[in-house]
TrEMBL record:
The keyword Signal applies. This is Phosphatidylinositol-specific phospholipase C X domain-containing protein. It comes from the Eukaryota. PROSITE patterns: PIPLC_X_DOMAIN. GO terms for biological process: lipid metabolic process. Keywords: Signal. Residues 1-21 form the signal peptide. GO terms for molecular function: phosphoric diester hydrolase activity.
């Protein structure tokens, strides 16, 4: 294991920071560089405790180096992020959400009158987030809300509570630790408030303030790229996390919005369930993102899994063709993930991504993307979010091979 950085040790002292009063300038009680740890051994134990707490969501940490864990080091520093192909995972924190997880949390979710349901409705991944990192995933879709006691920020997918104890803070330290071991890589974390969790849950001032605290702690200021409203070069982003803000701070004074780094994708302007969203994320420069987030195919009632898969595939492929041929210096962000739980019978994320056996002989969206991607060699596709990304086995390696390091990086159409 690589040596723990000074900022990581320092940040351990800030995990239990008090919430500040609204309207006051935000100051952390421990200045950067000041650590209460008396020895490196104690600091290692403290970090181990944090990573252990994060494990139900982040996974069990291990220092792994492979061609996929460091794939970005082959690309030049002056490569523009908007010219790259970046694989991501939708609802990345749901990999551990199973019937066993659900039943182990019954005593907690019962407090909010959440009854048991099929966990397949909300599980979108099978491998841990640390495995995703080592496999080459660089963009993570993370959904947060207060726990059932309205005390700490944890991870949910709808009413599916992933863990009561693995907090947003804990999981961030997992990403920080991984970047210490892989400084050539650049990560992109998309945070979105998850509604429909508990009957009384809301994106209130307490939620917004806790997230702000987590994203502006001394550790966060070290590891999050401290730029606002722009996406630059890979060299600028290496060893850092770029914050993708799919949330607002409308319940807090304006200071809390301006003090956060990253790129703001306004929830108001992110059209719900749309195959083609145009979102200006910097009004001063006109910087624009083109987004496909057609997460529930609008198929006829009682449609088959085959129909739902094909409708979703059509939307994703159309957007990827657009990414490959238009707006070369803008950001493209496509979601290959989807579900249709209101269908009869329900179509789960796994069925959409991987198919339903003999009922879908050509597989799901993932399998059908393979021949499409094989025809996209040398093309910029941008960010592509996947469910169950490791299936089929060749999908992610194929995606990562589309733009070789020595190829042109001039945008769409190259």
């Amino acid at each position: 294991m690589a040596a723990v950085t000074l900022v990581t040790l320092t940040a351990l002292a800030t995990l239990a920071e008090p919430v500040v009063a609204f309207g006051a300038p935000y100051h952390h009680p421990y200045p950067a560089g000041n650590s209460n740890c008396s020895s490196s051994d104690l600091a290692q134990l403290a970090l181990g405790k944090v990573l252990s707490d994060a494990a139900p969501v982040f996974g069990i940490y291990a220092d792994v180096e492979s061609s996929t864990s460091t794939w970005m080091r082959e690309y030049a520093d002056d490569t523009l992020i908007v010219h790259m192909n970046l694989p991501g995972t939708h609802d990345a924190d749901t990999w551990n959400y199973s019937l066993a997880t659900q039943q182990s949390l019954d005593h907690v979710t019962g407090l909010a009158n959440i009854t048991e349901f099929d966990p397949a409705a909300y599980r979108c991944q099978d491998l841990s987030m640390v495995s995703m990192l080592d496999d080459g995933i660089r963009v993570f879709d993370l959904r947060y809300a207060f726990d059932v006691t309205n005390t700490t920020l944890v991870f949910w997918h709808g009413p599916g509570l992933v863990s009561e104890t693995a907090t947003v803070d804990d999981v961030l330290f997992g990403f920080y630790r991984w970047l210490d071991d892989h400084p050539s890589e650049a990560l992109f974390l998309s945070f979105q408030y998850e509604g429909s969790t508990t009957p009384y849950g809301s994106n209130d001032a307490g939620v917004q303030l806790q997230l702000f605290n987590a994203l502006t702690s001394p550790a966060a200021r070290q590891y999050f790229l401290q730029t606002t409203g722009s996406i630059g070069t890979l060299g600028e982003a290496r060893g850092k996390i770029t914050l993708l803000k799919r949330f607002g701070n409308d319940m807090l004074p304006a200071y809390y919005t301006t003090a956060l780094p990253g790129i703001h994708f306004s929830p108001t302007n992110w059209t719900d369930n749309s195959p083609n969203i145009t979102l200006v994320y910097n009004s001063s420069t006109g910087a624009t993102a083109y987004i496909e987030d057609y997460y529930q195919p609008l198929t006829p009632a009682n449609s088959t899994a085959e129909e739902n898969i094909q409708w979703k595939l059509n939307a994703t492929e159309a957007h990827l063709r657009m990414a490959a041929t238009t707006h070369p210096n803008d950001l493209f962000w496509s979601f290959a993930s989807s579900t249709n739980l209101v269908n009869n019978p329900p179509v789960t994320p796994a069925i959409q991504a991987l198919g339903n056996g003999s009922l879908t002989p050509n597989g799901g969206v993932n399998q059908r993307l393979v021949p499409f991607l094989e025809g996209m060699k040398g093309k910029r596709l941008g960010i592509v979010m996947l469910d169950f990304y490791e299936q089929p086995a060749g999908l992610l390696p194929l995606f990562l091979s589309l733009l070789p390091p020595n190829g042109s990086s001039g945008g769409g159409g190259y």
